[in-house]
Amino acid sequence: MEFLSNLATAFIGLFQIGGEQFVGYITGIIPTLVCLITAVNALIAIIGQDKVDKLGIICSKNFLLRYTLLPILSMFFLCNPMAYTMGRFLDEKYKPAFYDAAVSFCHPITGLFPHANAGEYFVYGGIAAGLTTLGKDLGPLAIRYFIVGVIVILIRGIICERLTIKFMKKGENANV
Q1: DSSP symbols for 51-102
Q2: Which domain holds residue 148?
């Protein structure tokens, strides 16, 4: 009987801990995310959607911009999952690589700009909680995470672009 009582207490304890975590989010990160999302939407409205679109077109012309600046700005301004819509400015052969770069940047951006991928903030938040417990500063981690993310999305974008073009050519030759 005592076993069942302990099991029931442990079971409900899981939900109590979950509730405490939820309250922590409500009083911690959620207000920050709401403010950040509101600020970014206001910034887009001030800049103008047409200018944001024009920047997308400019970035699509150069592979360095296409796989660094465009995914970064897309994730910052449009957030996950809307960021992928900036691929509409790209030729078909570049769209898979842009998507690969943008989706690969979902987590590296959260350290500096948690609004960009609020639904998956827990990944960075878990690492950050461990470092905070150890008394470490989160700033250097967030900056390194961001920089490494930019390098990775550039490499992934270039490789994916080359593979896409190769497979598209192979497909064209097979249809002839």
Answers
A1: HHHHHHHHHTTSHHIIIIIHHHHHHHHH-TTGGGGGGGGS-GGGHHHHHHHH
A2: 48-175
Q: Is residue 43 a part of any domain in this protein?
A: no
In a domain, 26, yes or no: no
Distance from the Cα of residue 173 to its chain's centroid? 37
Q: For the chain, what is the domain count?
A: 1
| pTM score, whole prediction | 0.70
Q: Per the domain annotation, does 36 fall within a domain?
A: no
* 134 class by beta-carbon count within 10 Å (0-12 exposed, 13-18 middle, 19+ buried): exposed
Tens of pLDDT, residue by residue over 131-144, are 889 999 888 988 99
Does residue 62 come out as left (phi exceeding 0), alpha (psi in the -120 to 50 range) or beta? beta
Residue 152 CA to residue 104 CA, distance in Å, equals 8
Residue 76 domain flag:
yes
Alpha-carbon 79 to chain mean position = 7
